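Worked example 3. Consider a protein that binds calcium ion.
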Amino acid sequence: MRLGIVIMAAGKGTRLKSKRAKVLHQIGGQPLLRHVIASAAQVVPARDILVVVGHQAELVQAAVRDTGVRFVEQREQRGTGHAIQCAERETRGYEHLIVLSGDVPLLKTETMLALRDFHVHQKAAMTILTAEPTHSFGYGRVLRRKPGKPEVAAIVEQKALKPAQEGLREINSGIYAFQRKPLFEHIGRLRPTNAHKELYLTDMAGMLVKAGERVVAIEAAHPTEVLGANTIAEMMDLDREMRLEKARTLMAAGVSIFQPETVMIDGGVEVGPDTVIEPFAQLLGTTRIGSDCRIRSYSVLENTTLGDRVEILHSCVIEDAVIENGARLGPMAHLRPGCHVGQNVHIGNFVEAKKTRIGAGSKANHLTYLGDAQVGSGTNIGAGTITCNYDGVNKYQTVIGDRVFIGSDSALVAPVVIGEGAYIAAGSVITDDVPADALALGRARQVNKEHWAKNRRAQQEARKKGSTKK
Ligand code: UD1
Ligand code: CA
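Given these inputs, the predicted complex is written out as structure tokens:
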């Protein structure tokens, strides 16, 4: 069977009140349209998926071009029926079409396959995927010829419901299978005689029935799968649904997630067994976490790879980093993009790092900035150490060898190299390279003035007495 899939994604999404096209809004960390394409691509190869674009067509195409789907433009968005009219040429060669909505992102591959199989088995010209969700307001309703039978008489949009029809609970999901031939034989007869003056694809149901074609409906197994996202509130509902499902999948694979309704885990994130995720953690993008890790509350990890037994304490912000086995970060550590943290490294509170490599077993436990730095292994970075990597124009590297001891509150003015085994005295400003195993002192020598404080107090006392006598 030659099967193509058409995804309608040209609409603006007026009800979102947003500058951004609806299908580019994200749930579960990905644009709506990417979710729809991902499920469709499990049913047919990407080249057999045709996306109808219109509003912000270029941005929409750019956001999904890498998936390998094809595009057709619907210049003016004159309704869902018109969107499919625009796909006529590009779908030549297919016997059947599955039509999906770019704003119905939770649809599962299995449901699409069930729709396809039912459609073929029923020898229908049009098969409608339906559902009975708790709230049906706003959706088109499906009128069956007889209750419990597959044959459909028509689809009625919310605004066209007669009072007697308002109780109808079976909704049109906006997802259909068509035999291509009867679809395009009749689609030219759609008329914009409705509340929005649009060409409604839903009118094809009644029209095909009148033409003597077979139109049937199949109910989706889970009504949540076919929910659409027309408003921000609906979008957030779907986001919650998708993330909860992700959390359930991870829990089934041995991950402990406390209060999963509070965590934000993107679809692409991987987590190993026996890892514990505390409430209000965020794991985003392509983050990968090993086994036996702990991610404490309020930490945000984006595109970050963690080995095994890594501990991320409270409120860390980590982006584009690699953190090896046994490392411990936080609370309140900030890794900006490009950091590599070696095995068993400790990064403590109020430490910020950027484009920095830190070797195994090294420690930077308090109040430090490491930017554009290479730190060896077994090195201790004292509290308050700053790599001065920027002179106002350019950035420079700081290289620190193995087993170095940097005394607290030192400023390392890059470019600078600290040889292995070297000591930097606390409070130093280091502007020159330090040889291996040397001690560098980069501060004024201390001067002690004996009795100075005592003498000063005595002077002050004497002055006070002199003034009260008068
Ligand atoms: C549509 C159905 C409704 C169904 C609901 C399910 C129609 C007339 N109504 O309503 O019966 O219950 O979906 O979610 O079809 N689009 C285009 N070009 C256009 C207009 C829309 O590509 O000219 C795209 C949109 O980007 C969107 C999809 O088609 O992805 C559905 O359009 P939308 O306006 O959201 O339809 P609904 O009002 O939700
Ligand atoms: Ca919709």
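Take a moment to read the result before moving on. The first helix runs from residue 32 to 40. Residues 345-463 form a domain with the UDP N-Acetylglucosamine Acyltransferase; domain 1 fold (CATH 2.160.10.10).
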